[in-house]
Amino acid sequence: MKNIFLFILMIIPITGMLHTAEGQPLSLKSTESEQSIQPQPETPDKIVVTINGHDIKDSDVESRFQWMLQSFGKQKLSDKQIQFYRTYSRYRLIDMLARAVIFEQACQKRGYTISDQDRQKQLNLIIEQTMKTNNWSKDDYEKAVLAGGVTRIEEKHEQLMNDPSFKESVLANKLLELEYPGWEKIEPKAVIDYYADNLHSEFTEKETVRARHILFKTQGLDEASIEQIREKALSVLDEAKQPGSNFSELAKRYSECPSATNGGDVGYFVRNTGPRRPNEQRMLPAFSEAAFALAPGEISHLVKTSIGFHIIQVIDKKPETVLSLEQVRGRIEVELWQKKRKELLDQLFNKLEDEGDVTWYEKKPEKQSQP
Question: C-alpha angle with apex 76: 160 to 263, nearest 5 degrees?
Fold first, then answer.
């Protein structure tokens, strides 16, 4: 649940081999020779960038990283995973902090300070865009919030307003309002054009199958061992096809897949053909082909993949569906708003950086190319 709000909170653009909070890959233009990289001062808490006399230090980056880790919730991460994320997100976090500082300084120059009214306006924006993106009613929104583990709607709102990105977003939005009055307007024609241009790639939901399976692993085994496992799998297949047999319980008992704890349920997936969309779940080709050939409730023959032998039962099927413009109008409006906002913030950051006294002590996050 927490992640449905991140697209609006973490909207200060980021750089490196990552994506923006809107999910768009960054387009880079500057080269190594164009970057101003200074020798690092010898201090215990290393300075990474100085912006008009304000130092951003390693401790600031680490503090924001620790906050970011909270987005994983109760998911346990190993030390190796944490170090990977720390390294991978470093330039993203430095860029976010640099933008936050330079935007706050610009607001201070203009005599702007955050009011309670501004904070409430930002919260209302988050709620509105979350509902539009998911095509939710107010009731849908409140149910989703409560399903995320909080006992009160206000508790989630307090969490959002305490996030460091919340204040930064308020400042950035106010600065855009001052610099580009009326920028937020999205023309109806732009929404219609976006829908037409992306009808097949974004707004046509592919045919999907939901299945459960029992896996018998064979990777790395010799032929004799594989034959023994095949015999065992055939025996379980016979058991699964007996009247009254409980496939889910058999999966819990025999399957060597992590999905065994869920009765072998692997969720919905699409055919293993054509270009893959973001967040699209696919299975191995032989598995997919077998599953799509079955009707709900039917059990497959023994299916061999590079992992091992599978016994598959289809739970449900959904046909290809084309979403109407009205179903996705809100989502498109938010996406176009986010894209426009990012472009303007990129321009503004580059302008303020060029006008100010900014020194990077590490490799500087590269400037964004303008459309």
Answer: 105
* Separation in Å, CA 271 to CA 27, 257, 288: 31, 20, 6
Residues 108-129: what's their mean pLDDT?
A: 93
- For 115, phi then psi, to 5°, come to -110, 165
Question: Contact 347/148 with Cβ under 8 angstroms?
Answer: no
Token output for 356:
């100010």
SS3 306: coil
Type of residue at 93: L
Tokens of 227: 């034959």
Report the C-alpha gap between 342 and 22 in whole angstroms. Answer: 9
Helix axes 188-197, 325-355, angle to 10 degrees: 110
DSSP 8-state symbol, 150: -
Distance separating alpha carbons of residues 359 and 36, to the nearest angstrom = 7
State how far the alpha carbon of 154 is from the alpha carbons of 159, 161, 169, 310, in Å. 9, 10, 20, 47
Distance CA 94, CA 4 (A): 24
Q: In degrees rounded to 5, what are phi and psi of residue 315?
A: -95, -45
Q: Averaged over 255-270, what is the pLDDT? A: 94
Planar angle of CA 30, 35, 39, nearest 5 degrees: 160
Per-residue pLDDT at 36: 42
Share of the chain above pLDDT 90, in %: 71
Helices and strands: H and E segment counts in the chain: 13, 9
- For 240, phi then psi, to 5°, come to -65, -30
- Determine the average pLDDT of the residues in 241-249: 96
Q: What is the pLDDT of residues 4-45, one digit of tens each?
A: 444 334 333 332 222 223 333 222 222 233 334 444 444 578
Residues 6+ apart with CB under 8 A from 121: 170
Angstrom distance (rounded) from CA 314 to CA 294: 7
